[in-house]
Design brief:
Strand content: over 45%
Largest sheet: 7 strands, antiparallel
CATH class of the largest domain: Mainly Beta
GO molecular function: fimbrial usher porin activity
Number of domains: 3
Order of helices and strands: EEEEEEEEEEEEEEEEEEEEEEE
CATH topology of the largest domain: Immunoglobulin-like
Structural class: mainly beta
Protein name: Fimbrial usher protein
Number of helices: 0
GO cellular component, one term: cell outer membrane
Pfam family, one: PapC_C
Organism: Proteus mirabilis
Radius of gyration: 31 Å
Number of strands: 23
Length: 254
Amino acid sequence: MIKIIFGPNSVSYDRKNKASFNSGVSGSINEKINYSINTSKDRDNWSNSAYFGIDHSIINTGYAISQNGHQTTSSINASGSLLATPDTGLLFSNVRRDTVAIAKIKNIEGITFNDSPPTDKEGNTIVGVSPYIENNLKINTEEIPNNVELLDSVQNFTPVDKAIIYREFKYSTIQRYILRIKNKNGDFISAGSAVRNKNDEYIGFVSNSGVLLLNLLDKPNKLFVISPNGEKCTLNLEKVESNDHKIMEIECNE
């Protein structure tokens, strides 16, 4: 058999000098969709085939069709895995590994760990890991919402073969405010003024032009501003929404 290859095409000759021609192309539309098309023909027969595959976060699917001079056949395939733990219940995944880790960041969707699929609406995803060596399960911090402050971003473990490791990543939800505070006369509150809550705990200070930056675990209804000369006024935050993208002007009432 002699085979001459021209890029994706090939022409073959057998001992009876019978020629056959093959041509094919394959590629991907994006990181989740792939395809392939092939055609072949000799003096007596011909055939065409095509495949279209989609990688979902919970399952991989594919559709194939082939045709020759006598018949047309098609097939659909699906592959993935089903896991269950007391902490997560049933989980579907396109990860097909004997040893896996379930990563959770509670109720935050669309977060990836290492090269994992994105988390579901409960914050779960599955990552393939290697047994008997230390694995680093790392969260992609660029995907974390602005109002979330992680308490840990990497967890290390050494699993045995065929283990299912469960790791939850804790976080705090932060209320962020950028306020520009004025007094009842419309003047900026003095720089250096202290800000305290109802328990007289120090929260922060006012900078130039009356700007106050706040990062709070819980939203207070009121805060109290004490100027360097002892003057005191009250900030009412009941109707103020947290927002770390723009400055909001607010009046400090006596």
